Amino acid sequence: MVTKLPKVDVVTIGVGWSAGIIAAELTKQGKKVVGLERGKERKTEDYFMAHDELRYAVRHEMMQDLSKETITFRNNDKMRSLPMRSYGSFLLGVGVGGSGAHWNGQNFRFLPYDFELRSKTIEKYGLDKIPADMTIQDWGITYDEIEPYYDQYEKMAGISGEDNPLGGRRSNPFPTPAMKKTEAMRLFDEATKKMGYHPYVQPSANLSENYTNPDGISRVACQYCGFCERFGCEYGAKAEPGVTVLPVAKATGNFEVRPHSEVRRILYSNGKATGVLYTDLTTGEEFEQSADVVVLSGYVFTNVRLLLLSGIGRPYDPTTGTGVIGKNYAYQIRKGRATGFFDDHKFNNFAGAGGLGMIIDDFNGDNFDHTDLDFIHGGMIILGQTGQRPIANNQVPSGTKSWGKDFKDASLKYTNASLTVSGEGASMAYKQHFLDLDPTYNDAFGDPLVRITFDFEEQDRQLTKYLAEKCEGILKEMGANHVDVSGDLGPYNVAEYQSTHNTGGVIMGADPETSAVNNYSQMWDVENLFVVGASSFPQNAGYNPTGTVGALSYRAAEGILKYMEKGGSLI
User: Fold this and answer.
1) CA distances from 542 to 15, 107, 385, 436, 545 (A)
2) How far are the Cα atoms of 320, 439, 445 from residue 131, in angstroms, in the given order?
3) Which residues pair with 512 in a beta bridge?
4) 564 FRET partner, CA 20 to 30 A, in 80, 181, 332, 538?
5) What CATH number was assigned to the domain covering residues 2-45+89-566?
6) How far from 312 is each of 101, 273, 369, CA to CA, in Å?
7) DSSP class of 413
8) What is the C-alpha to C-alpha distance for residues 400 and 325, in angstroms, rounded to an integer?
9) pTM of the entire structure?
10) What angle do CA 195, 200, 202 make, to 5 degrees?
11) Catalytic center residues
12) Is residue 295 helix, strand or coil?
């Protein structure tokens, strides 16, 4: 029997960055918001003295239980899809704070080019530059339009950084200064300047100094302990929903978080969402939570899957190219890199922070000429110093024996004398890359799992090789005595960790025929349903997605308030 609960103004599905930002903004305006989260509640105290690499980084303490719900994967539609039963290519966070609790804190604004990718590419290089099966789209919003929301997000999170010489304009400086520049970063800075490039310190959600944000939330500076990615921050120095926006929402008295609540369906009638059906995972009871506005703010796969399970929106058909739900799934290109081994330098590689590093954007977006290249877009090149923990870091030069005295000697010699420079490339959308419901495999409730159909394309192979060559050149200029290069890209392998930067499936645009949401993240087909997150990206840029998710969330919050006042489509 389903228990019907009293109606609220807004219900969010998931309680991560998007839901936290929206809840904070709406509850400050007196709106009653309920946040449903399948995982447990979390607080900073949970992470005290928890620098346990085995527990968190290897055994994935903060991640979703794949035995109960996972994804299935295939490279193409001629293959049988199979479930991912152990973590590999990406990590699916669970619990209050979502993936925002265990992220590194690497924070970026996308380039102006990213938001008008298709039109700008055609304008400069012609339509023939875009392969026939590549389905990239403009976002339906420009950089100048989204810039104020980037600014709002950065002030809330206290983002530390310095201006990107090749980035979009900023209406305000970063709220906190750039993080400390280590010896490795100094070498990268000097070498890339000599090469004519434009280095800058990476924007970081790890605070460079104590900071109080516009909501009155005070946090302390980063300690450079090196335990950011896959870990919660015991200092609260890393911006995450639990130490920024969620306390603001809770303080209003208008926000309720319900952990251990698995949303099974979005309820829908007469063209509008009426609420959600969820199961209390502690008791097995089912509840119906009615709401005037439903905000689908889960991870990419959750957003797509719930829409398909609920029968909302037009499922994407890769054969005809029609439909929008599941369309334009994209990932991140992270295989182009080089590792340098130094005989004359020592670095404190054990120390670091998730967002500590130096970057150049000379080969990102359209900051370089693509006329004679077999790919579009590009990626940032980064020397990151996230902290080398003891278990998963043991780099030795190629040609070293993999066991015995030689291996041990090389391991000790290069523990603090090796550096990796990496390319993080954009991932373009293709007709044959999509998300749908698996016809065979179900979750613990008997509902179909979401299925990924994806593989690397020639675009990705060419981009990987190009970025790897640039990384190699930088390390040689830095003085590395031996450089190993990784520039060959084989088929996509879901079993090998690459990044958790999945995007697309409920994409944003200006045309209801080719997109699922408008630039307020409001569904074209269901005016009181807002779908917020990286699922909105029509393709992925050469950066980490979180900063853009944050900006879109602030815009969505503004849109929801407008909708609650006037109703109807916002565009």
Assistant:
1) 26, 12, 19, 25, 9
2) 17, 30, 41
3) none
4) 538
5) 3.50.50.60
6) 30, 9, 42
7) H
8) 49
9) 0.97
10) 130
11) 501
12) strand
